[in-house]
Design goal:
The protein has one domain: NAD(P)-binding Rossmann-like Domain (Rossmann fold, 3-Layer(aba) Sandwich), CATH 3.40.50. The chain has about 325 residues and is of the alpha/beta class. Helix 1 packs across helix 9, helix 2 packs across helix 9 and helix 5 runs parallel beside helix 6. It is built from 11 helices and 8 strands. This is NAD(P)-binding protein.
Length: about 325
């Protein structure tokens, strides 16, 4: 576990040598992603950032303000619908045409359902496309650039580390059957698919540090957008303010994951008394996924991972994933 004061102390020591030179952000026009992008730009180090999303005109003012904050930042907007795998592939192609390497990929785009399963025009569940399939496709497409990084290549997927479970439908991974779809099953399945698939990619790409991060309860307004202006939102807001994490503190933690030497590489050097982080294999550095919760504590999930292995869940999920993203690879 790392205290927020230690995290802030590390982040104020970020320099051009420890910050990503080139980064890609999804979900950076709202919530944690927006706060993290803002915090990175506020370091005032030279950085080129690709911001991917839709409705670019709506976010022009925000991005222009960031450019004013850091004159050394090159902020590039790329327009596309991240819930569509074809457009995700198009955005990755554009980045690959411009760059020989990237240092960081930070993904937080998502959609919280109000209770009904909504499909994209490609026939995939909207929530799963944004939080899982699209993210795995983007990782696969951009890993050659990350592997080419001479710096500190890292991937952070902000989702639900620690919520892995064996209570998933291996015969219905897309939750299409009656009674299988719901907010709880959606959250648990996305967490489990993400950890299993990112763990596989981490083993295959040991130069890159992979994180599956749970930010905790953060009042980003996402639930209000999904459920509308209900009577209980003032109560939810009060609970969030008392026990939750602000987007700004959540952003400090994500920036720490992207820049601290705790996780290997040439990041910000640890202060006296701090120890290196351990990945899921309880080893230092890359070669396996880091599961990190909202307290910035590494998780190992040994029991559930052993049970999932006995179920052959990793291979089943990976085959389904490749079947879904394959036409866009």
């Amino acid at each position: 576990m790392v205290s927020i004061s230690d995290i802030r102390a590390s982040n104020v020591r970020i320099t051009a040598d420890t910050a990503p030179q080139t980064a890609v952000f999804t979900g950076a026009t709202d919530g944690i992603g927006k706060a993290t992008l803002t915090r990175l730009i506020m370091t005032k180090v030279p950085v080129r950032v690709y911001v991917l999303g839709r409705n670019g005109e709506k976010h022009r003012g925000f991005l222009d303000r960031l450019r004013e904050v850091n004159k050394q930042a090159d902020i590039i907007w790329l327009e596309g619908q991240l819930s569509l795998l074809a457009e995700t592939k198009m955005l990755c192609d554009e980045i690959r045409s411009r760059e020989t390497y990237i240092d960081s990929l930070c993904m937080s785009a998502g959609f919280i359902t109000s209770g009904e399963r909504v499909e994209t025009s490609e026939g995939n569940g909207l929530s799963q496309s944004l939080t899982y399939y699209g993210r795995i496709l983007m990782m696969a497409q951009l890993l050659p650039l990350l592997n080419a990084s001479p710096n500190n290549p890292r991937i952070v997927s902000i989702l639900a580390a620690g919520n892995e479970t064996t209570s998933i439908y291996l015969d219905d991974l897309d939750l299409k059957k009656p009674g299988n779809f719901g907010l709880v099953s959606l959250s648990r399945s996305a967490a489990t698919y993400t950890t299993l698939s990112m763990s596989r990619l981490a083993k295959e790409n040991p130069r890159v540090v992979f994180f599956h991060h749970y930010p905790g309860g953060v009042d980003t307004g996402a639930f209000k957008k999904a459920w509308g202006d209900k009577w209980f939102w003032p109560l939810v807001g009060t609970v969030m303010s008392m026990f939750g994490t602000s987007p700004e503190d959540a952003a400090e933690k994500v920036l720490y994951l992207l820049t601290s030497a705790k996780y290997g590489g040439k990041g910000v050097v640890l202060s006296a008394g701090q120890s290196p982080g351990l990945n899921m294999a309880k080893m230092k550095g890359a070669g396996e996924l880091f599961l990190v919760n909202d307290k910035v504590k590494e998780l190992y999930q040994e029991k559930v991972m052993t049970q999932l292995e006995a179920m052959n869940a990793g291979d089943i999920i990976w085959r389904k994933t490749q079947e879904t993203i394959g036409p866009y690879s």
